[in-house]
Amino acid sequence: MLQINDFVIDKTEEELFAYHRSTMTSPEIFALEQERIFETCWLYLGHESEVPNPGDFVRRDIAGRPIFFVRSRKTGKINVFYNTCTHRGATICRQDTGNAKSLQCFYHAWTFNIDGELIGVPDEGSYGGFWDRKKMALQSPRVENYRGFLFVTFNPEAEDLITYLAGAREYIDDVVDGAEEGARLFGSQEGGMELIRGTHAYAVKANWKLLAENSVDDYHVGPTHETYLQFLRNLGVQTGRATKGGEGKDLGNGHGVMEKFAPWGRPIAQWGPVFSEASKPDIERIHDYLLEKFGEERGRRMTELSRNLLVFPNLVINDIMAVTVRTFNPVAPDHMEVTQKELVPKGERPDLRALRLDSFLTFLGPGGFASPDDTEAMESCQQGFQAKAVEWNYIARGFHHHPPGAMDEHHIRAFWRGWYRRMRAEE
């Protein structure tokens, strides 16, 4: 039987990198991932814009743990709590979203305010000498906020979030700053980003790591998404640069990015034939403004390049023809649940937002060109893993390229090295 040390072959001098396919099928590996990755890393919880008003709450399941976050009526800050009554364990937040002044456990009617304090207990006087209402308050995981993105960790010894994000921070900054400033040009006074209402939620019968790979894999775009590329060509788009060029980067801690020229247009700041002709002057105005605001190098990166950012282990920010926040949670070795939400600048002009949302739905929406294709590809891989005589997956493309291209697998190897380091942590 393979030991942890045998699951990955990493021989840079031989330009060889491979991982054993049992990492995609083994219940034992799956259980160890929960312990050594999802119990120790920072995990994306949600975005602060999901609870804009005092009393607004959202509940989530994060790595198998029920959690909810709520905006305090006292302080305006966001509180994050484990969704379990401190009495006998029942969940107390029983809706996905809503607004509340307090939350009451339906089992024995213990009542908590939205700052987690226990404020009501039927027949409280019957409790004995141990009783201390303050000690029965709701409990919280560690939580930190970066540019509106909320992360939690269940590891009391985890490094701070900024250190954990490493090189991924720069790309989050580009997403937020570019979109904010583009909206401000047309009169938005709000600043910041928001997730719009509505969630694309679906399940994939495949291992969660396949979606980590797929989300930053430029190699598959040409063959898998040929229908979309033909759709663009029919509109007059020159798609040659969509299947070559660009760069793949290791951002540290298992994070990676695939970045390349965007032939499909970007509603933030680069016009394309998929948008209306009437929108061209305004989009080009945003483009020029961002170059002036942030300088030639950063401005062109914001406006003319697409990027798929993978934050280890299971957050992807697709800053492509729209800005999509994707998370995928493992349920079993061959099953994951996926959610996608659209991130937009607050106060964006309605017609420009409509272009952004249509662009998102065309490619990544439930009936778009990409998501069904990618799901089919990942499920096909999972089926193929049952041919157990073929044991290894090779991700050795582009070892000799400097810098690595977007179609190379340098940034995918970064993910797997992060995975392998954590899985071996106690060996």
TrEMBL record:
Annotated GO MF terms: 2 iron, 2 sulfur cluster binding; dioxygenase activity; iron ion binding; monooxygenase activity; oxidoreductase activity, acting on paired donors, with incorporation or reduction of molecular oxygen
Pfam families named in the record: Rieske (PF00355), Ring_hydroxyl_A (PF00848)
Domain Rieske: 43-152
Keyword line: 2Fe-2S, Dioxygenase, Iron, Iron-sulfur, Metal-binding, NAD, Oxidoreductase
Family matches, as Gene3D superfamilies: Naphthalene 1,2-dioxygenase Alpha Subunit, Chain A, domain 1 (3.90.380.10), Rieske [2Fe-2S] iron-sulphur domain (2.102.10.10)
Family assignment from sequence similarity: Belongs to the bacterial ring-hydroxylating dioxygenase alpha subunit family.
Record PANTHER family: 3-PHENYLPROPIONATE_CINNAMIC ACID DIOXYGENASE SUBUNIT ALPHA (PTHR43756:SF1), CHOLINE MONOOXYGENASE, CHLOROPLASTIC (PTHR43756)
Name this polypeptide is given: Aromatic-ring-hydroxylating dioxygenase, alpha subunit
Organism: Ktedonobacter racemifer DSM 44963
